Amino acid sequence: DIDMDNADVVPLFDESQYGPLEDGTTVTVSGWGAVCSGCSGSDQLLAVDVAVDDGCGSYPAPGGLSVVDDLMFCAGGNNQDSCQGDSGGPAVVEVNGVRHRAGVVSWGEG
User: Fold this and answer.
1) Percent of the chain with pLDDT over 90
2) pTM of the predicted protein model
3) Beta strand 90-95 with 26-31: parallel, antiparallel or unpaired?
4) CA distance 29 to 26
């Protein structure tokens, strides 16, 4: 059961108020995804800090289409990333001491 009396509300990141996420901004992603290729999902909720990377995901997909559009951001690095099974989980950024939901884990490479 989820204890809604003790749940935190995480406001959405408002780009019009704070500006776009800048290259290098720390984003925390979390989920119950697998921690290795072919493994089952985790029994524990896991989280990892990744950095927004303006350069990742910018290569063209088959047919020359960009894989990251203006409504998306790409984050990763330091051999850390979200895992298969984390899709749909939160991508959270801290602004002025307050956590904001900046996005949703969607897909990755590798």
Assistant:
1) 32
2) 0.81
3) antiparallel
4) 10
